[in-house]
Amino acid sequence: MKTRALASLAAMTGVLLLVPTATAAQAADDKRPGGSASSIEGDSNAIKGMIADYLSKEYRLDKETAKKRVDAQNDFGKEAKKAKDELGGESAGSYIDQKRGVLVVQTTKDEAKNKVKGKIKDKDTEIKVVSRSMSTLEDQAKKLTDKLGSKLVSARVDVQNNKVVAMVSDKEVNSAKDAAKGMDGVEVEGTDVEISTQDDVYGGQQIEFTGHVCSLGFNGTKDGKDVLITAGHCAVGNAVFSRNGRELARTAAYAFPGNDMAYAPLAQGWTGQPGVDKWNGRGVAVKGSEEAPVGAAVCKSGRTTQWTCGTIQAKNVTANYGGKVVQGLTQTNACTEGGDSGGSWISGDQAQGVHSGGSGVNVGGKRVCGEKAGRPNNAYFQPINPLLQKYGLQLKTHQG
After folding, report:
1. pLDDT tens across 101-139, in order?
2. β-strands 212-215, 206-209: how paired?
3. Could you give phi then psi for residue 113, rounded to 5 degrees?
4. How far is it, in rounded angstroms, from Cα 232 to Cα 247?
5. What CA–CA distance (Å, rounded) separates 356 from 202?
6. Does the structure show a pLDDT above 80 at 38?
7. Burial of 146 (0-12, 13-18, 19+ CB in 10 A)
8. Torsion of CA 140, 132, 170, 8, to 10 degrees
9. Exactly one of 196, 341, 347, 356 is catalytic; which is it?
10. Predicted TM-score (pTM) of this structure
11. According to the 3-state scheme, what is the secondary structure of 321-345?
12. 233 has catalytic annotation
């Protein structure tokens, strides 16, 4: 991908829009290593430990508590879906409160609590009444997008605080606040950070094409043949991928814009492994693709920033990459940079998606993730399950 664009932020079902800027793709002559995994770590306790380490550091939890948080995430995801289905238009979204270790289910009516009581587990689940439904907040986000136009950098539904947050450049804050006057539940923030696509065999390892580099997302199969899965903007023009000087795969199909997904059958002599590179000589086993909820810990493997972790902050994000709009992305706060595009996002041993784009700050002439410049990270991925469904692929999973 040869453009940098600003991307939007959204919440569990939010729809948002961003303003673009332009730049060049990551060059392939960057000599950093393309991957280090040579075997798969199939021990589920070891995999959970990796996520627990992140939660322990991020939320100042003791190791045992952090491990319990990881164990709870899959169940919380199932409970959140049940609650959303039961509440319908009275739903105001759900999220994991990692500090307390509870799933917070939000609704706009006190009597609506009865709809979910008995349908979801009471243990470690809290039902909270708030003033604005998710559909109301989504409508506000759309209206705000129209009002701000090119002033808008991003807009998102903040599920935890039941409001819409619009981000504009620092110089546009006052005029944006004027435009948002009278809009219920809307907050305006200023920023000078940009968000961009990040173009820069195990998941997360480097793949090369026409002088540029991306990262492999996951391995899969189609009609019994091995395929690699990556971001669509890495495959534009039916890219031919190589690795270590050898042809790796030829794109069979890609979607970009609209979605950001692609797959390519592996060339003879290559075998796709059911794991994601941890960049320590081992691969993290992939055992499925169950979707994690907002608030869940998630990690990314990519050729530039390698293994980084964060928290799922929002879903159904719409991003505008230099006029090329991508829908249905998920937002996190992990560190990502150029070359990570297409890389693996995984929660525990469950595949979540392939990397699409993220924020960047110029430091000494180099574009780095926000945390390296004392700023927030923003990263976005294409969810894996819609990709598998669109192309009729089977995810390669570890059976050990």
Report:
1. 999 999 998 887 778 877 777 678 888 999 999 999 988
2. antiparallel
3. -55, -35
4. 19
5. 18
6. no
7. exposed
8. -60
9. 341
10. 0.72
11. ECCEEEEEEEEECCCCCCCCCCCEE
12. yes
Alpha carbon distance 205, 253 (integer Å):
20
Return the residue matching tokens 């998606």: 353
If DSSP codes are grouped into helix, strand and coil, which group holds residue 154?
A: strand
Tokens matching residue 278: 């941890």
Dump pLDDT digits (tens) for 289-322.
Answer: 999 999 999 999 999 999 999 999 988 887 766 6
What is 220-260 written as a DSSP string?
EEETTEEEEEE-GGGSTTTPEEEETTEEEEE--EEE-SBS-
Indicate the residue type of 104. V
Cα angle value 230/380/213 (rounded, 5°): 40
CA distance 300 to 292: 14
**Structural tokens at position 250:** 């030829």
Which residue is it, tokens 């890495």? 234
Type of residue at 42:
G
Q: Yes or no: say if 329 and 17 are a contact pair by the CB < 8 Å rule.
A: no
Locus of tokens 């086993």: 285
d(C-alpha 380, C-alpha 359), whole Å: 9
Check 158, 199, 200, 260 and give the catalytic one: 260
Candidates 233, 277, 301, 347; catalytic one: 233
**Residue among 312, 119, 279, 256 nearest 203 (CA):** 279
Question: 57 is written with which tokens?
Answer: 């550091």
Pairing mode, if any, of strands 350-363 and 366-368? antiparallel
What would the two tokens of residue 242 be?
A: 């190589």
* Tokens linked to 273: 């492994």
The yes-or-no answer on residue 154 being catalytic is no
